[in-house]
User: Fold this.
Amino acid sequence: MKISHTLFACISLSLFTAPVFAGHGHQDSLHKCLKAASEIKSGYYVKVEYLTMTEEGGKAYEIEIRDANGVEWELMCSKRRGEIYEIEREVDSPSDPLFKKHMKVDEKSAAQTAITLYPGKLVHTEYEIESDGSASYEFDIYEKHGVTYKVEVSASTGEIIEVNLEAWDIGREADE
Assistant:
């Protein structure tokens, strides 16, 4: 699997800082998750996020991969098991046909729902196609105390379908 230069540098740096990660079990679990992701999707690693609160009830890595066609995929991997448990496809905007087909709630309304429950500054939005074909917005909301929530809202119903707490990330969002 090919790795972007920024992400490669960060992952390489982590190998030299193993004592820092050792107490938290990141080195082995991250390696297992990157390997599991690369067995499912080939391409470039774009970003890795470490989530400390997930819908699965534990800690996880969200691994973003850009394939040869430029499509970005998010793969959720359980830190404890080292297994991929969710795959989503990202699209560029809500006007993408795959997203638009299921969209009944506009982005502004969905963002308002997320910010009402998780007050803070909306810093990033992604448009995702779930494994079942449904569409969702994923909002990164930065709270004043340095906490970043990842709040996923259904584009069909406007309901919050997933909330994760981001501890750290390596790499860049596609629009950064």
